[in-house]
Amino acid sequence: MILMAGARASTSTAGACLSSSSSAAQRHTRSVTMRPTTRCWRCCSSMYDYGGHTPSASLSLPPLQLPTAAPSGGSGSRLRVFSGSANPRLAQEMACYLGMELGKIKMKRFADGEIYVQLQESVRGCDVFLVQPTCPPANENLMELLIMIDACRRASAKTITAVIPYFGYARADRKMQGRESIAAKLVANLITEAGAHRVLACDLHSGQSIGYFDIPVDHVYGQPVILDYLASKIICPNDVVVVSPDVGGVARARAFAKKLSDAPLAIVDKRRQGHNQAEVVHLIGDVKGKVAIMVDDMIDTAGTISKGAELLHKEGARAVYACSTHAIFSPPAVERLSSGLFQEVIITNTVPVMQHQIFPQLTVLSVANLLGETIWRVHDDCSVSSIFQ
After folding, report:
1. Which of 6, 9, 199, 352 is the most buried (most CB within 10 A)?
2. What are the start-end ranges of the E strands in 19-165?
3. What does the pLDDT read at residue 270?
4. 140 — phi, psi (to 5°)?
5. Could you tell me if 253 and 262 are in contact, meaning their C-beta atoms sit under 8 angstroms apart?
6. Quick count: other Cβ atoms within 10 Å of Cβ 355?
7. Which residues of 77-96 are buried (b: 16+ CB within 10 A; e: fewer)?
8. Neighbours of 254 (CB within 10 A)
């Protein structure tokens, strides 16, 4: 049974989950800052509902309740987690799942805009994880990540893992025309040369981006978090059809449909006229009388997904849901998504959602426990792929 995001599992249920494995039991004797062995990332996932889908919904960010945790610099642990300024709330939730505090780090901007970074605690001989999505402002956040990596390298960290929930420049992964740059490869080189030993990324725009790195990459998926939430919705499986908003996302939508009771698949065929501009041509598949679930890796200006939703309504879809891991929400995305085309817009918190980006149909799910579990498995030399099996 798939538990909905935000549900609490009993001790017996959690004990049957992956966190109660023998490796987890062994690590209990090695570190006082370990995450609780009775917790499972899926069972204790949190959900932020900004749109009023639950009685307790509010337009303000819900307070983050932190358990009593050992300091990040405890003598029994060689694990350190630091956060950049891009998404500190997500990093704090990840540390909460791991049962530890975030590492102390000092960051500031000089008068000319230069970035200053200083670690406020020793990381010598430690496995360091730097949480920093390269979301807007992409260049500022990317440069901050590079300087954080350099600071850890010069502080004699044993390993440095760049935890990048959202990887900016991922769409520039190939040459579509002559004399274009492949910025995804350039950014990968910058992260590698800065001194990172490993990258942990979530839902890269395309799988080939992994090959741009000359260091190991752990690629995790936000789909399980969204699927768990959809499983809690009262929707007849026979009424569901999964829709890919473009041909390039067919593989992603097919995998999503397979895990969603092997739902049928439909494809929106489009012709892109320019960057951040899309024109829908026609629909491949049948959505008449169905609940259409559109799946994409990111929503930027929402042009692709909103025009696809218009087409689905014209073709007779009963309701349209939008599901995406990364919510960039560049203008005029909020206006398009809140125009009444969507029953619900389901995203994750890989990119922070600002107050002015909140609208009634929005539901934000947290991937903190998923990323936190991945961090522990990397630190403990355990399998990461088994999380998704």
Report:
1. 199
2. 47-48, 79-83, 105-109, 115-119, 127-131, 159-164
3. 77
4. -65, -45
5. no
6. 9
7. bbbbbbbbebbebbbbbbbb
8. 14
Closest CA to 164 of 338, 286, 325: 325
Residue 15 φ/ψ, nearest 5 degrees:
-65, -25
| Confidence band, pLDDT 50/70/90 cuts, at residue 1 | very low
CA distance 245 to 339: 18
The length of the chain, given as a count of residues: 389
pLDDT of residue 46: 61
Q: Mean pLDDT, the chain, as a whole number?
A: 84
Please tell me the distance from the alpha carbon of residue 336 to that of residue 344, in angstroms, as a whole number.
13
Strand spans (E) along the chain: 47-48, 79-83, 105-109, 115-119, 127-131, 159-164, 198-202, 217-220, 240-244, 265-274, 277-284, 291-299, 319-327, 344-348, 362-365
CA distance 320 to 240: 10
Looking at this protein, which amino acid is placed at residue 43?
C
Q: How far apart are CA 6 and CA 212, in angstroms?
A: 36
pLDDT digits (tens, 9 = 90+) for 236-255: 888 999 999 988 899 999 99
Q: How far apart are CA 31 and CA 71, in angstroms?
A: 12
Say which residue the tokens 């992603």 belong to.
252
- Nearest-CA neighbor of 326 among 168, 198, 190? 168
Cα distances from 343 to residues 5, 6, 192, 252, in angstroms, run 18, 20, 42, 22
Beta bridge partners of 345: 322, 362
pTM: 0.82
Residues near 54 by beta carbon (within 8 Å), at least 6 away in sequence: none
Residue type at position 1: M
- Nearest C-alpha neighbor of 200 from the set 302, 135, 128, 107: 128
Mark out the alpha helices in 21-87 (DSSP H runs).
22-27
Contact between residue 371 and residue 94 where contact means Cβ atoms under 8 Å apart: yes
Nearest Cα to Cα of residue 122 among 171, 69, 82, 62? 82
Q: What pLDDT, in 10s, does the model give residues 127-156?
A: 999 999 999 999 999 999 999 999 999 999
CA-nearest of 259, 264, 227 to 243 is 264
